[in-house]
Each structure stands twice: as C-alpha cells, then as structure tokens.
Give the backbone structure.
Amino acid sequence: MVNQNKLAESVRTQQEVILKDWVAFQLAATSLRRDLMKESELRDQSREFLSLFAQALHGGSDIGDPSWKPVRDFLAQTARSRVAQGFTPSETAMFIFSLKQSLFDVIRTTVKDPKELVTDMWAATVLLDKLGLQIMELHQQNREEVIHRQQEELLELSTPVVQLFDNILALPLIGTLDSARTQIVMENLLQRIVETGAMIAIIDITGVPTVDTLVAQHLLKTVAAARLMGADCIISGIRPQIAQTIVHLGVDLSEVTTKATLADAFTIALQRTGASIMKSAVARPKE
Amino acid sequence: MTMERIPILKMGSFLLVTVQVDMHDRLAMTLQDDLTGRIVKDRAHGVLIDISSLEIVDSFIGRMIGNIASMARVLDAETVVVGMRPAVAITLVELGLSLPGVRTALNVDKGVEMLKGSIEDRARGNGHVAR
C-alpha cells in the first residue's frame, strides 16, 4: 500500500496545517453549535482525533483492523458526549465529513501526478465515509440506549398497586397497555393479592388514553388471572368516549363489573366485602 | 404395583382435596371416582381443591378440574379451587384457560368462607348461587 503510506506520511507531517484548516472550517460551518459546545472543546477533540487518525493510517485503511481501535474508541466516546450534549446525527457526522476538505487540500499539494491524485482522493473519500458512517451509527446507538433506558424506567414507575382498605386493592393504570406492561401489571397485582389476601381489585383506567381491542384483551386477561387467584376485579374510570369505543369495537366486558369512577367502584367493593364507611355526626376539625 | 391415590379429607360438610403430584390419566380417573363416591357417602356440600403445591398446571389438569366441578355440581356440591400461584394463573390465562364455571379463592380459609356463604344463601332459598 504505497498510497496509504504516503497519505499517512503527509497527514503526520502536516498535522498542524490540517488541524488549523479543519477547525477553521468547522467553526465557519452552519452546523456548528456554539450553544452546545465550546470552541476550545472542539479544538481539543479535533486535535485528538487527528493524531489518532494519523497513527492509525500507518496500519492500513481497514477501520475494522485492531490498529484502528483507538480511533473507534474515540469515535464512540465523541458520539456519546455529543448525544448527551444534544447534537443531531448530521451535526455529529459533520465532525468527520468536514475533515475531507482539509485532507484533500493536503493531498492536492503533495501529489502531482493526476492519475495518482484521483486514486489517493478516492482512497481518502472511502476512508472518511466509513468513519463518518461509523460515528453516525454510534450516535444512533447511543440514542437508542437512552430510549431503551427511559422505557424501562417508565415500566417500573407506572405500575403501582395500592391498598385502599382491608381486602381491597387498587391498580391505577396510566399510559398505554402493551403486552410487556400487561405482564408486569399482572405479576405485580397477583403478587400483592397473595401478600394482602385481597378479595377485590379495582383497575382504574382513567389514565389510559385509548382502549382498543388489544388493550381490552389485556385488561380481560388481568381480570381472568386475578379471578383464578380468588380475587374479583372491578374496572373503573371509564370515560364516555372509551365507553363508546368499547361498544363500537364489540368488546365484551359483560363478565366484569365496570364503574364510571373509582369512588363508585370503591363503594361497591366495600359493600361486597361487608365493610362500610360512615360520616360522623360532628365533623372534627384538624387540630 | 402400589396404586397412587390423591387423599380426600373431610372438613365438616366439605371435602378437601390436596393435589401435590403430577396428574396423569389414571390418577385423574381415580380421583373422579373417589371424589364423587365421597360426596355421596359423606353428603358433602362443598369441595375444595387445593393446588398450592402445583408449579405447572396444563390444559389436562385445567380440564380435569372443570370436570370435577361439573360432576360435583350435579351432586349438589360447590367446588372451589384454592391456592393457585401467580405464575400458574398467568400461564393459564395466556393459554386461554381461565377455568370458566369454577370458583376460586386465595387459600383454604377463604375457600371455606366462600362455601359457607353460598350454603347460607342456599338455605335462605336463593336457589342458584351467583358466582
């Protein structure tokens, strides 16, 4: 790889020139985000990348090669910090792609033979494209990790089972019910039924935005599972629109007691467990 | 070969069946024979089937429990399945086996309470007991 070595050599010797040129280009570009990143930070990042890049070039142009590992690690780190800073994927990718111009300038001044020049340019383009795609992919990966983590946190956060009274549990659902959530909701509910010996569970769906056939099916599954454990379920918090949707979709909720509000459900639950709450004749003010 | 049997215990006017081993055809048939015999002999009004030691309940056991409940009903005895584990309940529901027509309770105590309640209802002449 004669070309490769020459490219490596010229990048190494003219590192300072390229860096100056590249940083100037990045600072002038429209994709620069001064609000997210300081100029000195950009300069440091660029310098570090360029020195790693120059070293790695000696090992060949295959970026999967172990000699490129420092560069790959650096890209991963850069992608992570840029995701955290709030850069868009294209802004992150421009970090690499903007190097092209400076690099081509150097190649143009060092290589005189036109044929050779084209070959070198091509090799450099391919290489930088690969690196650009790599950082883009890493950026995407980091974003997905964030989404995944948030999803998990949401799952843990949104399925509390609360005890309202002796023998009565309430399960206020908030957000859409998908299969994964139903599974967790069901497990939590059944576990609490075992722990508390509750006979009635009120599933409140005030916070569920829409009820389609799938969500209804998930609800019915939860009700059936609770019944197998000896607890009756009441579904409450059914909004008028949802009542209409349920009927239009032909979902059969006749097996389940349904109530419009949690208060109604609680009243019927008290009746069924033989408990009652009374108003005392004199209201006692809080001391 | 010694014949395996599932023990049936008498508790007042109820019978308690504790299933602790894996069910198979022969055992299920024997249980049905024994149980129907005992319901008539002891004039039992209720049957409790305790499955708290079962970690796996498949469609076979599900169907058998349903059959036993139907047979007991013909002999004028209510059946309550007690002690199902959460994991078992979830599996059954996922399989689409929610034991229709069988009553359930969390444990033996609650099952007994439930049976007593329905016998009182019957004594008051409410006839068929609502689920």
In short: The interface with chain A takes residues 81-82, 84, 86, 88-90, 92-94, 98-99, 104-107, 110-111 of chain B (CB under 8 Å). The helical segments of chain B are 25-42, 59-74, 86-94, 108-123. The domain at 8-123 of chain B is CATH 3.30.750.24 (Transcription Regulator spoIIAA).
